Amino acid sequence: GPNAFSHEILGVLGELARAAAELPKWAAPRPAKRNLLTLRDEAFVRPEPLGLVLIIGAWNYPFVLVMQPLVGAIAAGNAVVVKPSEVSEHTARLIADLLPKYLDPELYPVVTGGVAETTDLLTHRFDHILYTGSSAVGKIVMAAAAKHLTPVTLELGGKSPCYIDKDCDLAVACRRITWGKYMNCGQTCIAPDYILCEPSIQAQVVENIKATLQEFYGNDVKSSPDYERIINKRHFQRVLALMEGQKIAHGGETDEASCFIAPTILTNVSPDAKVMQEEIFGPVLPIVPVKSVDEAIELINSREKPLALYVFSNNKKLINKVISETTSGGVTANDVIMHYFLSTLPFGGVGNSGMGAYHGQHSFDTFSHHRSCLIKDLKMEGTHALRYPPGSQKKVDWAKFFLLKRFNWRPAGLVALVLLGIVAAVVIKVSLG
Amino acid sequence: NPYAGLVSSLRASWLTGKTRPMGYRVAQLEALGRFLDEKKEEMMEALAADMQEPSFEAEYNILLCKNELNDTLNKLDTWMKDEHVEKNLVTQMDLAFIRKEPYGVVLIMAPWNCPIIPALMPLIGAIAAGNCVIVKPAEANKSTKALLAEVLPSYLDKDCYAVVSTGEEGTVKLLENKFDYIFFTGTSQWWGLMGVLPGPGLWGPCCDTSLPSSGSPPMGRTVMMAAAKHLTPVTLELGGINPCYVSDTCDVQIAAKRVAWGRFFHAGQTCVAPNYVLCSVEMREKLLPALREAITEFYGAEPKESPDFARIAEEKQFQRLQALLGSGRVAIGGQTDEQERYIAPTVLVDVQPSDPILQETILGPILPIITVGGVEEAIDFINARARPLSLYVFSSDKKVLKQVLEQTSSGGFCGNDTLMQLTLTSLPFGGIGESGLGRYHGHFTFATFTHLRSCLQRTTALEPIHAVRYPPYSAGKTGVVRFASELKRQGACTLL
């Protein structure tokens, strides 16, 4: 429905338009600053295709997670093997059927299949692999890539923390968190995984989220056309198990037949609880009370680096403190998810949440080889003579003059230096010739 | 795991945040600068002891490091700044920027052929980017390694920077630890004389552990596989079998000098040296005397007596190179002296594509010449092989340069010279495919050791505008969202 359009298709359309508009700029050779010795030469970086790229998609947003990278890979001039996730089988079949009708299947084949097919695919040599999925499989992909020295971009997951400061517009904060947490039934890699806040506001947070859930999905969530389901029974059981033994402040209803789990809030959750040990990837929101922002920061830093980090506060200094004293793939302050939608911001993880990034020009750069080029001519041999043996202290001193960066040259100084350099070159030619 | 203690103490220092402020990084970089200045003589002596490094080459190495250091110190504040990005309609009121963050504890591994630059240049960038660092110099260069291990740490904050000196077994153990970045310079090939196979702990049950029967697994791959276990990003600066095409239209004397300089600098033990020459039969006849003349000009009639010609770094490399002399026929040089690990500046001709000398990165003062019909045949020859680290073309015809550039792939490219693309800090230095992944030099070193963290700071005001994105969904809401975020293809409007 409209959900799929705005979350999946719109993003791809935007990416396509941007790539089409800016490709000439992205693909043009990029001039490099020259030094005194190379002033007469051409120095530039030439973006070139890497060759054959493999894109492995995930099941939670099965369309955009293969299409958006595909746009960048094509823009950079590569051939691409597209491997959509077999778990989202309908989308996989759609992509396999439709893509060859629009793109040359010799250059952009779609490969479908499960673990066995993917394992086999990974034994082959690619020139870049972009994988979206879990950290566990990410390690396997990177190990397979290592056999061929293939660079990788790994878009993985983690527990994205969300700190709510006492001093913030709690109603707006909770509405935005509700939107980001429960969209796609919590199955979003950058969903706020858990909340950190002071105990004094915990009850209010729960009330606000409850009210927002009512606004979004009505009295009977199960019958709302805008609320999704868990992808399959296996993940249903997994998320169900995470709720065991926890204090359910809201929700908790499930229906295995339809893989339905109601939007759920857990309160007074301990950092050692099972639900705090793995990425939830479901509509269950634990609230972990902390005494202060410092305690929140300490808790965040004691765990693996997350894909996204969220902080809600009216206090700019507090926001800056949280950003400065933690790390994560990306950050949105006073909202959730939104940094994903600005394509000038590179989207990716760090540590356990991934490596590399893409979106917009970052996709183009990821799928390109940036080839350094220096084109000289066979003249001005005099200046070059100073580097040839036999060595001498005089030559060392001249080399230092030409190469050593002592301080920042102002433009006028640079002109003077160029003139001096030309004079020097002539002098060297005479004195060493 | 003998290094677990060291790594965890460095990580503890990292978590205190002390390496992050600019003032701290500048102080450490300045201390590194003092090391380069105060210990210059000791470094030159160590290099001379290890491989009879000519003093000019040693000075040049140190000069390039100082260059990087000064460039970094001059620009660090700009490099560290948040980079504000162009916003879209939805984010007009927000702050959108990229924050430059250190990774944490990084490992730098340097190779036997070039002990200084691949150890210190990445170190400069890693410190500048705010990381804690372990440097592992190559085991083969005994004096240089000792200098780095014993003297360098006293200049830097020992809580945050360490130098680890160890052999192959120790290296394997070191790689079992979790690092936040690994920067490795070496080869994708590992000459099978080591005899140390990483145990199952390194390869893991998830990986196919079938190893080539001919000895140890390639080192670059070993490092990346170890990194995969911890999802550690890597830069691998590997060797390359670098081609050098000399076209018929060029000044032979000058081309010969530049090729000879590039090949015999540091006794050929640089990863970017031209590995082999491709030229026509006619050009070869002109090139040989020109090369002979250049070698004599550089090193005199007896290169062995020249103070400007280095030696091979270690015995097993000498043995390897001596064996390679069997390929083709010696046209110039060919003399060796095992005692001194001396191999004369040598040019081989009549080399076949299948000869051993063309199957690996030579890393020695031997230059094979292969004859080809013309530029197309040269391009085919190059493209039939793994993509090299550097590619060189000599021609006074710019069209030929362009043709080779556009029809081949390599880490970097230099027209009408060798090695010089490395001296421009504005050009990123790195390989592709078998010659490596990632890049450094200048700003790119800082960027290598930096995590780019995307930050969007929004306001909680103007909430009604955001209502369009919330459920319950409707066609109307979708329309507004589409209008606000859609980028239309330019030139795609229709005339009404």
TrEMBL record, chain A:
Transmembrane segments: 412-432
Active-site residues, record numbering mapped to chain: E155, C189
Keyword presence, Transport: no
Encoding gene (name): Aldh3a2
Pfam families for this protein: Aldedh (PF00171)
GO biological process: aldehyde metabolic process; fatty acid metabolic process
One GO CC annotation: endoplasmic reticulum membrane
Species annotation: Eudromia elegans (Elegant crested-tinamou)
Reactions the enzyme catalyzes: octadecanal + NAD(+) + H2O = octadecanoate + NADH + 2 H(+); a fatty aldehyde + NAD(+) + H2O = a fatty acid + NADH + 2 H(+); (2E,6E)-farnesal + NAD(+) + H2O = (2E,6E)-farnesoate + NADH + 2 H(+); (2E)-hexadecenal + NAD(+) + H2O = (E)-hexadec-2-enoate + NADH + 2 H(+)
Name recorded for this polypeptide: Aldehyde dehydrogenase family 3 member A2
Lipid bilayer topology: Single-pass membrane protein
Enzyme class: oxidoreductase
PROSITE patterns: ALDEHYDE_DEHYDR_CYS, ALDEHYDE_DEHYDR_GLU
SUPFAM superfamilies: ALDH-like
Domain Aldehyde dehydrogenase: 39-370
GO molecular function: 3-chloroallyl aldehyde dehydrogenase activity; farnesal dehydrogenase (NAD+) activity
UniProtKB/TrEMBL annotation, chain B:
Sequence ranges assigned to domain Aldehyde dehydrogenase in this UniProt record: 20-188, 215-453
A single GO BP: aldehyde metabolic process
Example of a GO MF term: 3-chloroallyl aldehyde dehydrogenase activity
Keywords linked to the UniProt accession: NAD, Oxidoreductase
Gene3D superfamilies in the cross-refs: Aldehyde Dehydrogenase, Chain A, domain 1, Aldehyde Dehydrogenase, Chain A, domain 2
The keyword Cell membrane belongs to this UniProt entry's keyword annotation: no
Highest taxon, organism lineage: Eukaryota
Protein name (Swiss-Prot/TrEMBL): AL3B1 dehydrogenase
Organism: Eudromia elegans (Elegant crested-tinamou)
Organism phylogeny: Eukaryota, Metazoa, Chordata, Craniata, Vertebrata
